[in-house]
Amino acid sequence: MNLTDLKNDWIKSFPAPLIIAGPCSAESEQQMLDTAKRIKESNKQVSIFRAGIWKPRTKPNGFEGVGVIGLNWLKKVKQEFGFQTATEVANAHHVEAALNADVDILWIGARSTVNPFTVQEIAEALKGTEKIVLVKNPVNPDLALWIGALERLLGQNILNLGAIHRGFSTYQKTKYRNNPNWQIALDFKSQFPNIPLIVDPSHICGNRTGLKGITQEALNMGYEGTMIETHCNPDEAWSDAAQQITPEVLAEMISDLKLKNSDMSGFEEEIGRYRTLISDLDFQVIELMSQRMKISEKIGKLKKEHDIAIFQPDRWKTINEYAIQKAAETGLSKEFIDKIFKAVHEESIDVQNNIIIDRK
Fold first, then answer.
1. What pTM did the predictor assign?
2. Phi/psi of residue 3, nearest 5 degrees
3. Are 195 and 237 part of one and the same domain?
């Protein structure tokens, strides 16, 4: 069996879209019960209550979770409010404790997904479980690692699987805590439409203001649900306070979300015409790029002949400024044009490098 064979009917047992909510970290029994109570009272759409019991932190000496005692608080939430429960596991000991506490849904975090040895350890500890297991994308933009983690779970006969898109770390500062890199997630969804894909806007945004927009974008692209960090007193949270919201704000946000219909019956012909036009334009873009690189080859030969450095900062500045100016004139975003031209410039440098060092 491979990943494409999985039916993943578990998602059908929850209202659409699937909403997972709860605090980043379990801090106290009272905090957990207060948060769960207010979620229950303010919104009927939330099916699963999440809380971090163990918290992998970037640096030592930070709050790393309350540990096993927090599992008892998750149990109380389940008993008193009827939520299914979810938490992150990062090693075999976590798995054993979570299974003993009858946690319904386990997820593998981004820092764990990046390490195949860790994923294998978790998979073997979960062998044959009927629990739902979700896998967050790795911190770095590597689709193969994400898929590989799910394959390791399947290799241990774990059949109720799903994926969480939480964005990717980047050295460059952007408006996101973790850049969404939507194309990577959409490539995953394209290969495995049968595996439910859930967005984690809290970790993508790193703040409260963008949560609704990111969630709606994901639903527009066919994601099946969202995981949103929700706290009874976000400003006092022990971890990731800036990205958590109150249960009441969550309820308002969910009420504004709109599910998109995936059925295109009735306008297939019209959308087909537009797609044909796009395909034709894409072909023209590829042809133009090919011509551009052939000119770069000629420039590379001249630079080699006259011992000129490949990278010319003034020239790149001129290209970049012109591109940004044209973006403004045509209504395209500066960020979009900037990404395109950086990629084109990088390829052009590679082309010229190949010529200068006689790389075939």
1. 0.80
2. -60, -30
3. yes
